[in-house]
Amino acid sequence: MNRHTISTASTRILWYRRMFIAERCLISFAMGIFALLPVYLLSIGRDEIFFGSISAAGMATAILIVLISPSLTRHFSVRRLAPIGGLLYAAGCATILLNEFSGVRATLPYFLSYMLQSGGWALHFTVGSICIAALSSDADRSSSFMAYSAFSTLGVTCGPLLSSLLARFTGLGTLDMFILAMLAATAASALSSWAAQRAANIRDADIPNHASLARELFTLLFSNSAMFFVLVLLSASIYTTLINFQAPFANNSGLRYEIFFGSWAIAVVGSRFAIGPRVSRGAADRILPLLLGGMVISLLGFHYSPGHPVIYAVGSLATGITYGLSYPLMQAEAVRVTAPQSRTLVQIIFSLSYFLGLYFFPFAAGIVSVHLGYNTLTLLIAGLALLQTAIALVGYRTTRRKPVSTVASNKG
């Protein structure tokens, strides 16, 4: 194979990878728009506990999708599954729109809508990450995941920001924004379908038929990567609270939630591009606990931010930086300490842990916010970050004393 052929193949792979990154950005954008759902539900007479309930139903669907994803991948292939996540999310958007436009506002469609959205996001989150890994080499996989995460956050934060601007200057309402979310998810599905059909490397991501899934999954749960599954569960719990309860928290605190989403976007995206490569080359056993400890301090800023926009902005920036850098580092470390043949399954367990926190914790957060108030809720998520810091410190010390038979020779 000559140099020109290699260069052309590399360019094509890079282009396909960008298509999957664009897909993640569009679906994340739709998710960001639906971060306004709690505010909308409050406006029609529902409360935070109701949102927590439909979120818990979404959690069950997401976890089910992640649990069966190894079997789905084996039977249908990654190539065929790639666009399904976006289509499911679009169907969830359509369900809530039909319910609202009908004027009935029945309870069941809210649950069905969130279950479809959660299942679509779970499938996309898992299969999309597998596709990015398959289209990346050992040398550039870390930077690929950093960009993937950065554009995911960019989409989530641009959703509510654009919604606010459109509502203010065009008079469009929340339901109009939900239509925009449906269109974004549909476009995302089209992009991934186009890329998956043309990228030959995607075939390498399929799980072999001879693999013993149950035995390998059980082994991984007690391997060196187990600590990172716990860490990402706690991170997802913090993240989902910040995103889903930010608008009502800001309204109750005399603040504008646009400050958070704008600061968060700048901090997460900027840190991942500007500092991320340097962080990924450093000693993770020192950097990760340091980042998590910094998140404790930044989250306490929310506790003291009511009535103080500057503290609110600084806390949002600091949390965005610490979370933005720590999350991809957890994912990279979970892969690094795992043998190459088990890395696809590690990503699946990582996704399972993420969705457990993402969809279950809003129910607990809803109860705390209603009965104990948002001051207690802000202290609670700071406590979760403190627990993360302790687990990382103790976990790395324990890992150094363990045998490393599952550690791969190359950093993933």
From TrEMBL:
Top-rank taxon, per record: Bacteria
Native source species: Mesorhizobium plurifarium
Cross-referenced Pfam families: MFS_1
Gene3D superfamilies: MFS general substrate transporter like domains
PANTHER family for this protein: QUINOLENE RESISTANCE PROTEIN NORA (PTHR23531)
The UniProt record lists the keyword Repeat: no
Tagged with keyword Transmembrane helix: yes
GO molecular function term, any single one: transmembrane transporter activity
Lineage: Bacteria, Pseudomonadati, Pseudomonadota, Alphaproteobacteria, Hyphomicrobiales
Protein name per Swiss-Prot or TrEMBL: MFS transporter
Keyword annotations of the record: Membrane, Transmembrane, Transmembrane helix
Residue spans crossing the bilayer: 21-43, 49-69, 81-99, 111-135, 147-166, 178-196, 217-239, 259-275, 287-304, 310-327, 348-370, 376-396
